[in-house]
Structure formats: structure tokens, C-alpha cells
Amino acid sequence: MPGPADTMTVLIVDDEPAIQTLVAYNFTRAGFVAETEADGLRAYERIREEPNKYRIVILDVMLPGLDGMEVCRRLRQDRIYVPIILLTARDEEIDRILGLEIGADDYVTKPFSPRELVARAKAVLRRVEAPPEQASPRDELVIGEVRMDLARHEVWVRGRRINLTPKEYELLQYFMSNPDRVLTRDQLLDRIWGYTVATDTRMVDVHVSHLREKIEADPKSPVYLRTVRGVGYKFSSAGPDGD
């Protein structure tokens, strides 16, 4: 878990001084210790040098040195999982999906309410720092050929270890903790991303599609992650032996 339990340090990475000041002020009022950075590469190096220092990072997409997307991508490649909220002036769905796919925890477009940003940050922290809901006594979830080792944070499919993004891991754990239960897109958004916005349900579809590519023998004919048309998805406990 990033940072000591009694310290909430937020790193605000934005090259606009006015935004730095406004966001830092609101986070300080909310009880955080706020630090700022204007250059993407320097921000990346600061986080990499002290990966446990920051409780959460507010990261602008358009930055000098290294853009926010690349900062996020490199941190996840380095297996540094500090929570990240991306800020951007762009509001294209593909940008939101790309940011979340490379490992960001949330995505806020400019202009934004500083209070809402703080609230979103707290929601992210509540979610990522909460204990697993339904971990088994053996710290393991097994359905068919899919095995999640919760203690080691590993996923094995048909005897081979697979790599998942943080969001894919959370999503798979939630599905496997609720086998055969139909989960709506709104439920998944609320549980995995910490909020429900109707226009963001496409993110769920994208993540499910990526999960299928990694766990299904034939992603076009899934036997585990099944679509319930007009409702959402379910993880079938029947696996490859089902209908």
C-alpha cells in the first residue's frame, strides 16, 4: 500500500501553475500533504525513486518531458501501482479507455470541480485500500482452468501464468468471487472504478474483451466470461465443461 497509513501525500503533476495551486489547496484542505511537479519525466523519476511515498497521483495527460499517458504506462511496466487519476482537456471516449487500459484508476476531464476531484480521489483510495470482499480461506479462487492466487497476486490459466493490468485483475477477482451471478455494467463500474456514469459503460466492455483474450481458449466463443444480452456479464462456473 503506498505510503504510511497515517500520511496521505498526493503528487499533483500539471504544467499549469494555476491548476497546481488550486488542486493542491483543495487536497490540503481535505487532509492531504500536497506536492507538485510540472514535468512528466521528473514526475516519473520522483515516483520511481520513492514508490511508497505517494498515496495517489493526479496526472495531467499533456505534459512537457513525458506525457501523462507514458508516465502511467512506464509506472505500470515497473510494477508500481500507486493509484493514478488522469487529467485532460480531451473528452474523447478512446482517450478515456486508453488511459484506463494502461493502468490509470480514474479519468477526469477539464474543466473540473476541485471538490469533485478530491471526492474521486477518496473513492479510488477507498476501493484500492479495501480488503478483498470474498477471498477464500486458502487465498485462492479456482474455476475450471482459471486459478487466482490472491496471496501472490498471480493468475494461472491452463497451467500458464498470465499478466493482467490492475483493473483486469480486480475485474477477474470480482467475477470469480461471484460465479454464475449476472453482473450489470453499472454494478461493475461502481465496484471496479468506484462510480457509475452511463457513458462510461463502454469501458467495461473493453476490459471484458481484454480479459477474454487472456483467459479464453477461443475469445470469440467464451466459456467463462459470458455475455447476458441486455444485462451484463457472468463468470460461468461450468467452464469448458458447460454448455
From TrEMBL:
Biological-process GO terms, alphabetical: regulation of DNA-templated transcription
CDD domains: trans_reg_C
Principal subcellular localization: cytoplasm
DNA-binding region(s), residue ranges: 138-237
Residue span(s) of domain OmpR/PhoB-type: 138-237
Response regulatory domain residues: 9-125
A GO term for molecular function: phosphorelay response regulator activity
Cellular localization per UniProt: Cytoplasm
Taxonomic superkingdom: Bacteria
Entry GO terms, CC: cytosol; protein-DNA complex
PTM annotation (4-aspartylphosphate): residues: 60
Keywords: DNA-binding, Phosphoprotein, Transcription, Transcription regulation, Two-component regulatory system
InterPro entries given in the database record: CheY-like_superfamily (IPR011006), OmpR/PhoB-type_DNA-bd (IPR001867), Sig_transdc_resp-reg_C-effctor (IPR016032), Sig_transdc_resp-reg_receiver (IPR001789), WalR-like (IPR039420), WH-like_DNA-bd_sf (IPR036388)
Keyword Coiled coil recorded: no
Pfam families: Response_reg (PF00072), Trans_reg_C (PF00486)
Name of this protein: DNA-binding response regulator
Organism: Alicyclobacillus cellulosilyticus
Organism lineage: Bacteria, Bacillati, Bacillota, Bacilli, Bacillales
Gene behind the chain: phoP
